[in-house]
Amino acid sequence: MSDFNLHSLEECLESHIPLNEYKEVKRILYGTTEDHVLNLPTAAISLAADYNFEIKAYGIPARKEEIRKPRKVRVGAIQNSIVLSTSAPIDKQREAIWEKVRIIIKAASAADVNIICMQEAWTMPFAFCTREKFPWCEFAEDAETGPTTKMLQELAKAYNMVIISSILERDTTHGDTIWNTSVVISNHGRYMGKHRKNHIPRVGDFNESTYYMEGNTGHPVFETEFGKIAVNICYGRHHPQNWMMFGLNGAEIVFNPSATVGALSEPLWGIEARNAAIANSYFTVAINRVGTEEFPNEYTSGDGQKAHRAFGPFYGSSYVAAPNGVRTPGLSRHRDGLLIAELDLNMCRQVKDFWNFPMTQRLPLYAESFQRASQLDFKPQIIREQ
Amino acid sequence: MSDFNLHSLEECLESHIPLNEYKEVKRILYGTTEDHVLNLPTAAISLAADYNFEIKAYGIPARKEEIRKPRKVRVGAIQNSIVLSTSAPIDKQREAIWEKVRIIIKAASAADVNIICMQEAWTMPFAFCTREKFPWCEFAEDAETGPTTKMLQELAKAYNMVIISSILERDTTHGDTIWNTSVVISNHGRYMGKHRKNHIPRVGDFNESTYYMEGNTGHPVFETEFGKIAVNICYGRHHPQNWMMFGLNGAEIVFNPSATVGALSEPLWGIEARNAAIANSYFTVAINRVGTEEFPNEYTSGDGQKAHRAFGPFYGSSYVAAPNGVRTPGLSRHRDGLLIAELDLNMCRQVKDFWNFPMTQRLPLYAESFQRASQLDFKPQIIREQ
């Protein structure tokens, strides 16, 4: 049976389950009995039709307050396949992806998106499965002055849009070190800063520790005109303590640009970023790429199988989760797409007031417990039968 | 539309979705294309039929290793409604629940269960919604020498079964303090120790901070003959750092005895304990009560609605989640039930070796970050546009 019978989980559920039961299924699985579908302008819909990408938009309503006005923000998530062959010249590969994604950002602008985020390492194939350094390291560029950042600064300014761009970074100030980095560009086109991936996988085809180390930029929260945002890159979503520190620094939306494949992580995908939204009373935006990438040379996957050249399929399924547990449907599992969600950031404080998770988190207890557990002579708290 | 059209989410999905698509849905939502249903002995099935409770049993297979033998253990989770009216004498109410649950434990024994766990505060109605101290505090008993522990010690010994019993505890050594406590009894009938609920809710009808304080027993792991187990009581499941400390202390199975109602938490239920299993490379067992409980006096719920006497429905749906993301179907949303899962504890280390979550968790970073975030003059790491 093909892994890809299903275009999307949500469409499958909706098409087969009778309406009265579907509402209950939807409530239990998605936190809401029905999606709040937003109308999109023709310009955005036409671009999606002309350039063959999916576009979906949902609202996640919050309670109305007496004193604070709603703090509505539209976030966009872009998932896409690469464009050219991985054996094409590096700059051509990158430009072809730029070209594709620029169109999707244009559609996002037509739909009044305020903050947009692309997938992890969006300018390149996810070539780390090969363990080859050449030519892949040539994709790395300076976070602040590199060509991708420059290109996006123009768009950010033109569209009045905050852009989160996850790239392979080359840090020439520190010995040409390579990092997995997200750059945040303000809606005025200014470079705000960067975050380097905190947790690096060594699993399956994700041989990333061969290329870059654990990030040294802490857990920055970027105070943009549209809200306080942070970026938890890919494998960091498996680490609840990583999500938590972004929350402690005040994040209202945490983006999770990722690249992950079905056999490895698909059953975990709907769980982790959503759990983070709930546990930390903020919104999360989980973004994965789509498609299968073929590499010039054969490589092995450390799983006892024969050498091969294909990596994937990446299963897309990008989605947005809210602090109250509501989540949007996912984008397609195999098509390029733009997911738009209109959030009211007031919900973050509302959920904190309701559920009290920060108030009850007992942070000093865990600071001290983690400190003890970090010691070489740590003695776990074990109780044995007397 | 009634909240209770659905007997179980899983049965609904299975009955409506065509088989080829169902397998993909099941894989994405439950981590496995099909459940491994275990055969049960007639004695267990007959008890379930005679006493009107659901009984389900699943295996969660692990990889075969060369050096270690499989470490198979059968865990049981009991969900149940109360028996007598909440206005009946306290000791009669308790005895009636004992009587019901003893039968279910007997069925578990017939099915070779090694470790069993009842729901939170299993000997009583979940009366904390009322904010009344009398008569509910009379349910509290000594963890080590109280009547419930004594009663269960006999069963544990007779059935060679570890029993986790969550009760309202009265600590006469410390000023008659009341606690929400889980008692662990060994399969030899010995009192091993106790754990007091670490995080106490102040939300909706869960006015528990009126009755007891945050636990002072840390994150103990009980090294039983069948594996290293811990208990994360109810609201503690919303706190990833709480789950994490049980993992750092070496837990292989963490039970989450709970009491929670549909409108409040049902969309979160399938997420949190399962995320904990994934993030910490251990098994989790999430247990919720069923039924609606009527109290003698009206009470209000702090939600602007009229005073009322009913609390519920509690939605059951108890389930087991594995470190690799696989989960069992849930028990019914409204019937008493016994869920049995046969686990191979070797999976915990296998998943750690595969995913490397402990190796990549950067504990010292978070010990220090949490320490800073605990300070009164904490300055969050905020980056503003220059």
UniProtKB/TrEMBL annotation, chains A, B:
Top-level division of the source organism's lineage: Eukaryota
Entry EC number(s): 3.5.1.6
Enzyme class, first EC level, given as a word: hydrolase
Keywords: Hydrolase
Residue ranges of every copy of the CN hydrolase domain listed in the record: 73-345
Pathway annotation from the record: Amino-acid biosynthesis; beta-alanine biosynthesis
InterPro entries found in the cross-reference section: Aliph_Amidase/BUP, C-N_Hydrolase, C-N_Hydrolase_sf
GO molecular function: beta-ureidopropionase activity
Catalytic activity field: 3-(carbamoylamino)-2-methylpropanoate + H2O + 2 H(+) = (R)-3-amino-2-methylpropanoate + NH4(+) + CO2; 3-(carbamoylamino)propanoate + H2O + 2 H(+) = beta-alanine + NH4(+) + CO2
GO biological process, alphabetically ordered: beta-alanine biosynthetic process via 3-ureidopropionate
Keyword Signal: no
Family to which this protein belongs: Belongs to the carbon-nitrogen hydrolase superfamily. BUP family.
Protein name: Beta-ureidopropionase
Origin species: Ceratitis capitata
